[in-house]
Amino acid sequence: MEAHENTADRQLRVGLIGAGPWARAIHAPGIADHPGTRLTSVWARRPSAAAEIAGPYCAEVADDPASLFGSVDAVAFAVPPDVQAELATSAARRGRHLILEKPLALSLADAQRLADTAADNDVVTLVLLTRRFASDVRSWLGEIAELPGWQGGSVRWISGGLLKGPFAGSPWRHAEDGGLFDVGPHAVDLIDAALGPVTDVVAAHRTPSGVWQLVLDHQGGASSTVTMSMHTPVRPSVNELTVFGEQGHREFRGTAVEPSDSYTALLDDFVAMVHSGLRDHPCDVRRGLHLQRVLASAREVART
C-alpha cells in the first residue's frame, strides 16, 4: 500500500484542454494510462464534450481554463493554435508545465510570447511532434547524425487528410496557410533534424490545389526540398524522408510506430524532465518557435 501511495504522490496531475478527435484518441487515454500521470481535469468549449472525455477516467469537468490551471501540475492542449497560444501562455504564467500541439500559434509574435513566458516561469515544455517520438524515427535520425557530409535531402508529406476523416472539418486547417502550419512543423522538423538547422527559406510556393513546395538552406551548407499536401487523394499517405551526400543516399519511409506509442514516449520524457528539473529537450517550446519562424518565413516568401 505504501508503495502505491508513493507512486500516486509522484504522479503528475494533468489537465486537458480540448475535446476533439485527437484529444479523445491520443491525449486522454495516453495521460490516463501512463504510470507517471493522472488525467484529473478536462475543459472544452462545450461542457458536454468535456464530460464525455472526463467520465471514463473519473476526471472532473472544469468550469473554465483558469479553474483547471489551479488544480493541476501540467496542462495538455488539443485545441486550434490560436486558442492554444493564449491559454498556454496563461498556464505558463501560473507555473504549469505544458504539453503543446504544433504549431505553437498562428502568428510568430504569439509563439514568441508563449516561449518567453515558459522560459520566464521555468516550466517544462514538450511539443507533440509525433514522428520525433517514434522509436524507429529516433534510431534513423541518430544514425544519420553520426555520419558526416550530407549535402541535401527532401521530405514528401502527401495525404488527403482534409478531404475526409476526423480533421476534415477543422476550419484553421482549411485556411490558405492551414496546410503549411499543420503539416509543415512535422516536415520541416524532420529535415531540420536530419540535415541541421534551417537557416533560410530560399523559395516557397502554394498551388491552387493546396500543394506546398519549399526550398530550404541548412546550417553547414546542405539544401533541401519539402513537398506537402493534405488535399491529395492518395492511399496510403506518402511520408518520405531522404538525405544524400558523401555517405550515399539514405531513405526513411513512414513509421511502424502508432501515434499512441509516440505519445507514451513523450510522456516518458515529460515526467522525467519534471522530476529531474531538466528543461532542455530537442522538442521543447524553443524547437516549436524555431519551426514557427521557418513557416512564417515560408508564408512571406510565398506571398512575394
From TrEMBL:
Q: Does the keyword Oxidoreductase apply?
A: yes
Q: What class of enzyme is it?
A: oxidoreductase
Q: Which InterPro entries match?
A: Gfo/Idh/MocA-like_OxRdtase_N (IPR000683), Gfo/Idh/MocA_oxidrdct_glycsds (IPR050463), GFO_IDH_MocA-like_dom (IPR055170), NAD(P)-bd_dom_sf (IPR036291)
EC number(s) per entry: 1.-.-.-
Q: Which residues form the Gfo/Idh/MocA-like oxidoreductase N-terminal domain?
A: 12-126
Give me the segments passing through the membrane.
Answer: none
Which key words tag this protein in UniProt? Oxidoreductase
Q: Which GO terms describe its molecular function?
A: nucleotide binding; oxidoreductase activity
Species: Actinoalloteichus hoggarensis
Q: Where is the GFO/IDH/MocA-like oxidoreductase domain?
A: 169-248
Organismal lineage: Bacteria, Bacillati, Actinomycetota, Actinomycetes, Pseudonocardiales
Q: Which Gene3D superfamilies match?
A: Dihydrodipicolinate Reductase, domain 2, NAD(P)-binding Rossmann-like Domain
Q: What protein name does the entry list? A: Putative oxidoreductase YdgJ
